[in-house]
Specification:
- The complex is a heterodimer.
- By secondary structure, chain A is mainly α.
- Chain A has helices at residues 16-20, 30-53, 57-83, 90-106, 112-131, 139-160, 178-199, 203-213, 215-220, 225-251, 262-274, 280-295, 303-317, 322-331, and strands at residues 8-14, 169-170, 253-254, 332-338.
- Chain A has one domain (5-338): Orthogonal Bundle (ABC transporter involved in vitamin B12 uptake, BtuC).
- In chain A, the strands form 2 sheets. Chain A has a two-stranded antiparallel sheet. In chain A, strands 2-3 form a two-stranded antiparallel sheet.
- Chain B is of the alpha/beta class.
- Chain B has one domain (2-96, 157-265): P-loop containing nucleotide triphosphate hydrolases (Rossmann fold, 3-Layer(aba) Sandwich), CATH 3.40.50.300.
- Helix content of chain B is 39%, strand content 22%.
- Chain B is built from 12 helices and 10 strands.
- Chain B is globular.
- Classes of the chains: A mainly alpha, B alpha/beta.
Chain lengths: 339, 266
């Protein structure tokens, strides 16, 4: 017998095991430990296995590009959800990191294992420095100004015909082989993911979250808001620059298409699909979105229509995102109660 | 009392003026605050009390005038530098970090440069565990340690606890002055009754307080000096009895309320 819906409602309760594993008691038994370790192990082992099981080199490359986008998506989610800076500057970070790695490789002859860290650090500092004047802005205003940067850089390179102009920089070294390329990216991605998850729960992470919640109280606590915003922007832009640097070594070419808005938009779409604020969600979102957009290539220009339909479907049916939904199902059970 | 007055004031406000466009929020307000005292600032709505706080703590830029803290000019410093020197403030509209549990709210001020400098190992300094220090401070301010209250999300706490949390955020900085902006407003009589001893204890701990209040009875219990603002100008200052006896103050502040009734309870 079913009651009219007004008299029923769904109640969500944390599973007992979720509560037991919240503290040191998680060490009590293998069951509790595996409850904690299982989702993490699935992700790690899954990521490590994917390159071995995908059918062709083409799809291996698609997976590599997904990882590049995933780095950007984690950087976007970190900035937007934990610091309150909605950044559309992903393409700017990729471009700066990419061009720096390209210059370091072609002009100074540095190998990829030096150009990537160099581009990460120098690129991160450079992006932070350039974004410094916009840091007092918040929300949509910061988003619009940060969108201006990649557009601006592409026009500057085109107009002044510097850094190879519209032809770009060619003859960049690739990674030693495709396995090194893939596993380097996977390891970096997992390190950054778990590092970021830890960071946002550390004391400094709480300060960053405080900046989003309420920056006046941060000021009243004797903490400089601009300093911590720039620390966060440095971390996020360094991630973006690293993905850009890897990208030019994969394509063996660096051009103004590195400033293409794809690098700003796809990470945001992936964050919407995966669940914002989870940091893992954006990664999963990229692993779904980027291959789908490749599959749809057969449809030519119609692909944008299908792509949009998939996005709309996600927004309508799972607006919270895959990861938020998954976490809820994993940690809680639901039941109908009368009231 | 005389001994206090002879000393160099800890905070000296001289001639601050603030215009918001064409509106004169403050004009030429000057006063001194001495170490260890509690100064009350009262005045009708819109008389510029909160603007005084914002001007002292740097949250709004003064049109003119100076603020000296221990003889140092702090008029042009940004808010976080002023807080770093030991001038803490609460907000009239509570500003906790809503998405964090109450005790995690204190980890943030304990992470500030001032706390790391002054706190030492136990006080949340370089190596200290800021979570436990946060809970210690909350217990001091009236959160029951063994209850769930310190661990609840700030968004779910009632007003009384949020006001205490505001004060706790100031205490985490180990400040020399706390400026309380209407800390009693919105509280029930019993909540106020438990706050008053807290304020008295802060004074005994050697913290100087500036209190902006509408609750005169409770204010008069703790302060020994009152300043009255009206339309952005300082009407007068002095001890509660003489201030309340003043005809100008009566006219500006009380309107129809009988002054004697308030004074009887004070």
């Amino acid at each position: 017998m079913t009651l009219p819906s007004e008299q029923q409602r769904k109640e969500r309760i944390d599973r007992g095991i979720k509560i037991r594993t919240d503290s040191i008691y998680a060490m009590m038994s293998y069951r509790e430990l595996s409850y904690l370790a299982l989702p993490r192990l699935i992700l790690i082992v899954g990521m490590l296995i994917i390159p071995l099981v995908v059918p062709s080199m083409y799809w291996q490359r698609v997976f590599t590009i997904s990882c590049i986008y995933a780095l950007l998506a984690i950087s976007f989610d970190f900035l937007a959800h934990y610091v309150g800076l909605v950044s559309l500057g992903g393409a700017f970070f990729v471009g700066i990191g990419g061009y720096l790695a390209a210059i370091a490789n072609t002009s100074f002859g540095l190998p990829p294992w030096l150009t990537v860290p160099l581009a990460t650090l120098i690129g991160g500092s450079l992006c932070t420095l350039l974004l410094l004047p916009c840091l007092p802005l918040r929300g949509v205003y910061f988003a619009i100004v940060s969108l201006m940067y990649p557009l601006f850089m592409a026009r500057v390179i085109e107009a002044l015909d510097i850094l190879g102009g519209t032809d770009g920089i060619m003859g960049i070294d690739s990674f030693p082989n495709r396995w090194a390329e893939q596993y380097f990216l996977i390891c970096i991605l997992l390190l950054i993911l778990f590092g970021a998850r830890r960071l946002v729960n550390m004391d400094i992470g709480l300060v960053l979250r405080g900046v989003k919640d309420n920056d006046q109280a941060i000021r009243a606590s004797g903490i400089s808001v601009t300093f911590y915003k720039s620390v966060a922007v440095f971390l996020a832009s360094a991630m973006g620059c690293m993905s850009g640097a890897c990208l030019v070594h994969i394509y063996m070419w660096s051009g103004i298409s590195l400033f293409a808005l794809d690098f700003s938009i796809i990470p945001i779409a992936a964050t919407v699909i995966g669940g914002s604020g989870t940091l893992v969600g954006p990664l999963l979102g990229c692993l779904i979105l980027v291959p789908i957009s490749e599959l749809l290539r057969d449809f030519g220009t119609l692909r944008i229509v299908f792509y949009a339909l998939i996005l709309v479907a996600f927004i309508i049916f799972r607006s919270e995102g895959i990861m938020v939904y998954g976490q809820r199902k994993y940690h809680q059970f639901e039941r109908w109660i009368k009231f | 009392m005389d001994k206090i007055l002879n000393k160099e004031p800890i905070l000296k406000v001289s001639g601050i003026t603030k215009h918001f466009g064409g509106i004169k929020a403050l004009s030429d307000v000057s006063f001194d605050v001495h170490e260890g005292e509690i100064l009350g600032i009262i005045g009708p709505n819109g008389s510029g009390k909160t603007t005084v706080v914002n001007c002292i703590t740097g949250f709004v830029k003064k049109t003119s005038g100076h603020v000296f803290f221990r003889g140092k000019d702090i008029s042009r410093k940004p808010p976080h530098k002023i807080a770093d020197m030991g001038v803490a403030r609460t907000f009239q509209i509570m500003r906790p970090y809503y998405s964090l549990p109450a005790y995690k709210n204190l980890v943030i001020p304990l992470f500030s440069p001032r706390s790391r400098r002054t706190g030492g190992w136990r006080g949340g300094g370089r190596l200290g565990d800021r979570n436990t220090v946060g809970i210690d401070i909350l217990e001091e301010i009236g959160f029951e340690r063994d209850s769930y209250v310190p661990y609840k999300l700030a968004a779910t706490l009632p007003t009384g606890y949020l006001k205490r949390l505001e004060l706790a955020r100031c205490l985490a900085l180990k400040p020399e002055i706390i400026i309380c902006d209407e800390i009693f407003s919105g509280l029930s009589m019993s909540e106020i009754a438990s706050m008053v001893p807290l304020i008295e204890r802060l004074q005994m701990d050697g913290i100087t307080l500036i209190m902006i209040e509408h609750r005169l009875r409770e204010l008069f219990r703790v302060t020994d000096r009152i300043m009255v603002l009206n339309f952005g100008e300082k009407l007068m200052e002095g001890n509660p009895k003489t201030v309340m006896a003043n005809e100008e103050v009566k006219a500006a502040y009380f309107g129809s309320q009988t002054v004697q009734e308030v004074m009887d309870h004070a």
